[in-house]
Design brief:
Two copies of one chain form a homodimer.
Chain A: E1 2-5, H1 11-18, H2 25-54, H3 65-70, H4 77-95, E2 102-106, E3 109-117, E4 120-124, H5 133-146, E5 150-154, H6 165-173, E6 178-180, H7 184-193, E7 203-205, H8 210-218, E8 224-225, E9 233-238, H9 244-255, E10 262-267, H10 270-284, H11 289-298, E11 299-303, H12 307-317, E12 321-325, H13 329-335, E13 341-344, H14 350-355, E14 381-389, H15 391-407, H16 411-426
Parallel strand pairs in A: 1-11, 4-5, 4-7, 5-6, 7-8, 9-10, 9-12, 10-11, 12-13
Antiparallel strand pairs in A: 2-3, 3-14
């Protein structure tokens, strides 16, 4: 774990913290082969790959409707209730994102903006050893709010074929009927190219491991995809008012996701920084191996001379999750330019947003928050502009349009407008 | 040119019309080399490539401020005025797209959505033989409205070094100070990787030829890009009320963009279809070679049995530009699911939207309108969610979040919430 003054980081240390994108040339070759097999041989390749990579002999690719229907009943009541609380909160927050169509008219011209849902969407939900029902909700609830008529979920099979009942129950709660027991790059290939069992979709969303992420990148000429994804991250800005034990827990929570997770504290209080470091070192003794690994390799506790210095670093870092635990949270928030999702104050751990507060947990990592946004209803809508000019409206802009068309050497463009003006005078 | 009943198209004919994405394996190899040269050797490679590919020996990569300042004065007054009319219309329409931040509070939780501009954007503006000042406006005006502090334009040099005064004047009008005389894949490489003269940007937008498009695809792991682009397209839905000569002019206008342009009429009136075909054949005698080529290769006049059949085909086609010239334009518009931008009625030729009505002309082609939107202010903003819970708000969702965290096997997530609850009880 790195412990340092922010101002005294070496060039290499800074570079390592800020530049978190890695190339994966070897994995890429493997992924290309998987994509090609599925593209050429469809279902047959899916079954083979599931056997080879998941160690499961699938009898059917699609989860039968009755298995989906029965899934909620197999859960403990409090788990089912928790899923429903999460679903309702996510729906509440995302409903506020649904944009309205609008138009504006002036002097013979009506211009407007329509929103239309995508015809179909594929949600990738990680699985295998663990199950991630929360990710089902984060992808499918906004898609349904946008009005997407066809939502397909791909998630790896469990040991006995069907994905975990928890994941299936989340699908059922989110109103998803189309679920496939296929994971990894092969799932992305199926959603992008289509197979006998899985019709292709217009867009693939959802997080995954490096194989899934590479596959999404490689098929992005064929289908749209959401933001690129990498290992989970948190950056915490804390002043002297923050409680080191809580800060350490939030870093550990992020670290337990992935041995490559990145957990950074930037504190204006050397005392908080040092106490957090000690708490982390202590916790590492009991933490699961992957959390320990992540903290050792990707953990950093940095001391900033001022909140401004901390914010400036956070903006360059562009973390997936940003926690602000200070005595001036709102002022700090106003200075934030780059982050996936922000958590303010000591009572807003990232774990709340991961599950049940309502914000989305599919977020840009690896600095992609500098240019990308987290998943939202907007990902499932297209914006379509339109215009209707009447003779008056046309005449108002005709001269400018004709002049520019000729200046750009596009004579037929000019003619297509002039011909209307001629008609107009004879109307 | 294809003339047929829509219902009688062969499988191959339909496939050719609907599946318009082409692979470009040869161009890709050349583009990869260009990207690599610029990545490794920066400015030196830019100068070499400009000499090799544009035949211009550049003395400086960046256009000096005084050359930009002088550009408007070198134009004919009516051209300058036309640029200003276009700029004002584009600004008007795009200002309406600027989203407001919002938040909502309930029972101890405040959740919200912020919008932040990207720190930097690169606009690619085609050029060389012709100049496209309109594209400068379409990219830079929305970026400026979004609040992007750094907007860089790359456009190919003219024969004597600097890009055309028309393009430079548009930059000046749009408030762009950073303009580089670099075009093609090398411009995309410079914007993505950075060179001594050109700092890298967070996102690259703007249309280009196949080299530019491929380059944008290949660098999309490094920087964000707008929608994939291909040759221009128009699909026109017309009933018996449409005037064949105007329809033919709109198709010709689209055809003159590119020998690979796609121009399709779907008419419920056989008479309108036949007359348009005749008008096109007649016009081809005088049309420039590229328009003739486009119409012969990519032109189609199709007869539909009903408006519904025409709309259904248009939705599958997902055209960049959709014209609707019928006696029920608004009803038809309501049925449209996939299109870049829509033009209603006989007085709304696509050429108006290309320049001066205010809508954006950077639009998804090749069927990408099924999943992508045209350029807008949203392309230059990130959405950042945030939340602030107080003890009451945390308590309301804590049980659900803790239950789901444990169900997903993420113990530290659960602990990070529980620890807050414990604090709360001792507050």
């Amino acid at each position: 774990m790195l412990f340092a003054e922010l101002a005294e980081l070496s060039r290499e240390q800074k570079e390592r913290l800020l530049n978190r994108r890695r190339s994966h040339a070897e994995a890429e070759a493997a992924v290309r082969q998987i994509l090609e097999r599925v593209r050429r041989r469809g279902d047959e390749a899916l079954l083979e790959l599931t056997s080879e990579l998941d160690g499961v002999e699938l009898e059917e690719i699609r989860v039968p409707e009755e298995v989906l229907e029965e899934a909620p009943g197999t859960l403990q009541p409090e788990v089912l209730e928790a899923l429903e609380v999460a679903r309702a909160a996510i729906e509440d927050f995302h409903r506020k994102q649904v944009p309205e169509d609008w138009s504006c008219s002036s002097a013979g011209a009506t211009l407007g903006m329509l929103h239309r849902p995508l015809d179909s969407v594929g949600c990738y939900v990680p699985g295998g050893r663990a199950s991630y029902p929360s990710t089902v909700l984060m992808c499918a609830v906004p898609a349904a709010l946008a009005g997407v008529p066809r939502i397909a979920v791909c998630t790896p099979p469990g040991r006995h074929g069907y994905p975990a009942p928890l994941t299936l129950a989340a699908c059922r709660l989110a109103g998803v009927h189309e679920v496939y027991s296929i994971g990894g790059a092969q799932a992305v290939a199926a959603l992008a190219y289509g197979t006998e069992s899985i019709r292709r979709v217009e867009k693939i969303v959802g997080p995954g491991n490096i194989y899934v992420t590479l596959a999404k990148q490689l098929v992005s000429g064929e289908v749209a995809t959401d933001m690129p994804a990498g290992p989970s991250e948190v950056l915490i800005i804390a002043d002297a008012s923050a409680e080191p034990e809580l800060v350490a827990l939030d870093m550990l929570a992020q670290a337990e996701h992935d041995p490559l997770a990145v957990c950074v504290l930037v504190s204006t209080s050397r005392e908080v920084a040092e106490s957090t470091l000690r708490a982390l070192q202590e916790a590492c003794k009991h933490a699961p191996g992957s959390a320990k690994e992540a903290l050792e390799a990707g953990g950093a506790v940095l001391v900033a001379r001022s909140i401004e210095e901390a914010v400036s670093f956070a903006n360059r870092f562009a973390p997936e999750h940003l926690q602000i635990i200070t005595q001036q949270d709102e002022q700090v928030l106003r200075m934030i330019r780059n982050a996936g999702s922000v958590f303010l104050g000591r009572y807003s751990p990232v774990a709340c947003g991961d599950y049940a507060s309502g914000t989305n947990h599919v977020l840009p990592t690896s600095g992609y928050a500098r240019a990308y946004s987290g998943l939202s209803v907007h990902d499932f809508l297209k914006r379509i502009t339109y215009q209707k000019l009447d003779p008056e409206g046309l005449e108002r802009i005709a001269r400018a349009a004709i002049t520019l068309a000729r200046a750009e050497g596009l004579e037929m463009h000019a003619r297509s407008i002039e011909a209307r003006l001629e008609r107009r005078y004879h109307d």
